[in-house]
Amino acid sequence: MNSSEKKYLSYLLAAGVILALLLIMFYPALEGKTIFQEDVLSWKANAKEALDYHKKTGEQAYWANNVFSGMPTYQITIKHWGNLFLHIDKLLTLFLPFFMGIIFLMFAGFYLFTRWLKIDHRAALLGAIAFTLSSYFFIILAVGHNSKAHAIAYMLPYLISVFFLYRGKFILGGLLTTAILALELSCNHIQVTYYLAFMVLFLVVSEFIYAIKEKRIKLFFIAAGIHVISVLFAVLINFSNIYTTYKYSKYTIRGKSELSKKENTKGLDKSYITAWSYSPSETWTLIIPNAKGGASQPIKIENQELLSSINKPEVRGFIGDWSQYWGEQPGTSGPVYVGMVVTFLFLLSLFWSSHPLKWPLFLISLLATVLSWGHHASWLTDFFIKYVPFYDKFRAPSMWLIVVELTIPLLAVFLIHDLITQKEALLKKLKSFYIIGGSLAFILLLFWVTPTTFFSFISSNDTQYIEQYKNYFAQQVQDPSQTAQIEAFFNDFQQELVNIRVAIFQKDVMRSFLFLALTFLVLLGYLKWKIKPTYLITALGLLIAIDMIPVDKRYLNEKSFVPKAKAERPFVPSLADSYILQDNPDGYRVLNLTVNVFNDATTSYFHRNIGGYHAAKLMRYQELIENQLSPEIRLLISQLQNGVSPERLDSSLAKLGIINMLNTKYIIINKDAQPIVNPHYCGFAWFVKKFHLVDHADEEIIRVGEINPRYEAVIDKRFANLLKTLDLSHRDTTASIVRTKITPNEVSFKVNTTTPQLAVISEIWYPEWEVFIDGKKANLLRVNYVLRGVIVPAGAKEITMKIHPKTFIMSLWISFASSTLILLLLVGAGVTFYLKQKKEQKN
After folding, report:
1. Neighbours of 646 (CB within 10 A)
2. How many H-runs (helices) and E-runs (strands) does the chain carry?
3. Which of 389, 593, 701, 734 has its CA 20 to 30 A from that of 162?
4. Rounded Cα gap, residues 404 and 298, in angstroms
5. For residue 306, what are the contacts with CB-CB under 8 A and spacing of at least 6?
6. Whole-prediction pTM
7. How many Å apart are CA 710 and CA 689, to the nearest integer?
8. Which among 548, 664, 546 is positioned nearest to 68, based on CA atoms?
9. Where are the alpha helices (DSSP H) in 396-481?
């Protein structure tokens, strides 16, 4: 068999392996099922109105009326038809179901990257398996972080193109860096791309150092120049998304607040940025999956046998409902586990491998690990938030570990390659092999023998919840002697909770110890005896698969799949929903108190919701929530819990100015009962008696909570010039304003008035909305901090508001032109390469 045939055979083997992995992990897809993803439910709810509108009219919806009283659809659902590379992405994922296509891309990217680095095909295959089976990828697919997984899949292909470029393949490297970065950006997960940029920076710096040593500085700077141009074109291909997002972000919680009391006036608050921080002790999940208990799920789901050992039924029941996870994050769907086998190989690689990329990859791994600790490493995190561009735009530092999930298998592959090609040289380094293996084994045995010496097994969240429960039960008892019983109960509870968590921890510690021992024996046997490399690869491959797949199956298994019909229609209307849908053809807004109002999107599937969930909500609406809307909701909930009379409830509803100005007619307090019908909602639009000009946002947010919005309005002084001639002292009290039409892109009103009026429209203000009176453009005001206002002249008038996304429409054509140009160049390069190969074959 010649070298060409061996090469093709190696690729066929890789294709067979990825097919096997896809079948093992996603076999229910063969039955027509798909993954039921909780986070996708939020998207389906948010996108419902826009998708229905497009299905009905064929038009793109630019505004979502059903989320947070209204917001742009730019980060919900919008078609970037100008980016032709979106079609290339479908081709590269082989038109497979999205979850299978993403895993295929991850596997292929890793395999091709390591093959291009001249790694033995068997080592490359092993690394691709190890990388692809990292637990985090299956966890994010299980919950629905599809854009994140998609963007991760293009990280290694982009690094391939970068190496092509800096190793002198200027035309091919330039086109590939442009094309693959365009695909990476089209996944629309800028945070992953941001981390990729750090990896590229480290690798380019290492290339610069080698260029100096090898005296090829000129070639390096040529490559760097082409690299800059390629990045520019990749951005232009995605211009409709990037520029629109950039413009939109200024008005979101990632933009600059006008309130002086904000902790961070530009970007996200530090507490929000660092909420999901991986603590240093949680980093042990890289080799011990349940180092912190696993996922945030009730202990009873997977640990009935352990629970049965608790003698006291009341304690057993309480613990069964407690979270299995005991780390410091607010919650988690599972740990980042890269594997005991792979990590051992990675650590050996640091001492044994001579690959030139070893130290750049190790340094970026180290940086990513420390940054993943977030507020637990505030000395570094604070520096990045303050000085590193755009760092304050992203949250969840734990996501930095996607870099580690990539670099650990890469360095492990370098070692496997050296084991195959430099076995004799490595025999001289056995001392470090014994030290590393022995040290890891010693640490794991210590963890197993005395776990409470190193870990508390009670998180700060646990302590907080326990205290809350203690206080709650203490308030319920009349006899002071029962206080001691409550204290004794929680002492027993805490001790048994620790015991359960220790048992969960020790089970996985011993699991990791066994995989470490087996890997150690396989490597020792290979180094000491004349075992063929193929047997080594087979043994390591089996160990990696047996190590990783069961952990992946903890978080994505056959229970994760449902029939496609259920996934496409995930929500069933409750009795309360059905009542509102029947009673509410005009689309009054809904407040649903049976869910987390501002962290749950399900209400948006059926109704125009004053709450919802979205990571890029409008800044002013978020500030209205924090300063006015949430306090009103808490007050309402308190009164409902105290069992107020209908008369007092009506009086209370009348005082909820913010809820009423948002046109909230229905309040759901029980899914299985009719909602409260609020008679004090202000309607779709109304005329006010007077307005108050305020000097700044601080005053505006306070005053809007003090007025009666049905009769008064609060307006920023920046709109004062438009109000100079408006006199409301002799306004027509019989004037009317009636909504006649509403779609995601347009809303219209009929007006009859004998005097000029100030109309408040219960729709959220955004600068891309324009207002027309009888077809002529007029001025749109921002009133009551978030709503729209219009000065209406006397007479019978028609008011029409239309959203005009100039930025988006303009940017679509830039994307189209750029992607067309690069695709033509790629086709031209491909044809040229083909003709060159054909000519060489003839000669």
Report:
1. 7
2. 34, 19
3. 389
4. 29
5. 299, 500, 503, 504
6. 0.89
7. 9
8. 664
9. 401-421, 423-426, 430-449, 451-454, 460-476
